[in-house]
Amino acid sequence: PVTAGSLAVTLCLLVLSGLFSGLTLGLLSLNLEDLDIIISGGAATEAAWARKVKMVRKRGNLLLCSLLLGNTLVNALIAIFSADMSSGLLGGIIATLVILVFGEIIPQAACSRHGLRIGAACVWIVIPLMVAFLPITWPISKCLDWVLGDEFRKPYNKRQLAKLLEMVRYP
After folding, report:
1. What are phi and psi of 86, to 5 degrees?
2. Which listed residue, of 48, 59, 170, 171, carries a Cα 20 to 30 Å from 68's Cα?
3. 168: three-class secondary structure by DSSP
4. Nearest Cα residue to 103 out of 132, 73, 127
5. Which residue did the predictor score with more confidence, 140 or 42?
6. Please, what's the largest Cα pairwise distance for the chain?
7. DSSP letter at 58?
8. Cα gap 121→26, rounded to integer Å
């Protein structure tokens, strides 16, 4: 039976799913060099956003693990609640479609275009999440740091840099 309470909880979980999914794409697509460029040469508003985002982005693997753990947790809870509201198979199908559209596609589309702005607005949610999940995510992120090494941006070769400058001069 569908109750107002279970529907409200499911909708809140769906919002969190979309938030975590969108932030994963939006924040992790911003590398530290890009943020430094925006901080030093961007508009004042964008520079302020970049400074906020850089606080969480400089711990990339910890950020990744925290957002993915949060997203996986809320998606599992959505599946559990939707299965309780209808038959198991129908609930699973509904949960999959709802999560796909409202928890993945739409948030990732928005955050791929506005990741800096949305990420800066959500830092106040991300930092407590990172702290809350620290006992689980810290060891995983340290393993990733050890196996993958530091994040770095591959420098452009001369031909790529010339093309980039050409694109900037003649948009």
Report:
1. -150, -175
2. 48
3. helix
4. 73
5. 140
6. 64
7. T
8. 12
